[in-house]
Amino acid sequence: MKFGPNNHEERCSEGHSAASTIATISATLSADPDIDSSAIEIRMLGPVVVLEGYITKAADRDKVISLAAMIVGWENVQDRMLSRFPMQ
């Protein structure tokens, strides 16, 4: 039986809710002027952060993953981002 936002599935091992984890990662990505995070979607599947959407620079992938991993740990980051490089 599940009651409200205190479900174990909706919280990480530290007790943070999925919404607060997503907000923290989103704010961290937005604060970095070198990353275009406008096309990146952040979702939670249990304790795992799923990064989806598009990156416009090859270096963005590693940086986005690293920033998310600083918050939830390397083992809890799943990269599903696709590359969309501007036409030259």
Number of E-type strands: 3
Shape: globular
Query: Please, what is the average pLDDT?
Result: 84
Q: What structural class should be given to the helix and strand makeup?
A: alpha+beta
> What is the end-to-end distance?
55 Å
- Side by side, the strands of the main sheet go 1-2-3
Helix content: 25-40%
Strand portion:
15-25%
Can you write the helix and strand succession as a string?
HEEHE
What's the alpha carbon Rg, rounded to whole Å? 14 Å
Largest sheet: 3 strands, mixed
Number of helical runs? 2
Low-confidence stretches: 1-9
Give your account of this protein's structure:
By secondary structure, this protein is an alpha+beta fold. It has helices at residues 18-31, 58-72; strands at residues 40-45, 48-55, 77-83. Helix content is 33%, strand content 24%. The protein has a 3-stranded mixed beta sheet, covered by helices on one side. β1 (40-45) and β2 form a beta hairpin. The longest helix is centred in the C-terminal third of the chain and has 15 residues, at 58-72. Mean pLDDT is 84; it is low at 1-9. This is BON domain-containing protein. It comes from Rhizobium lentis. Residues 17-85 form the BON domain.
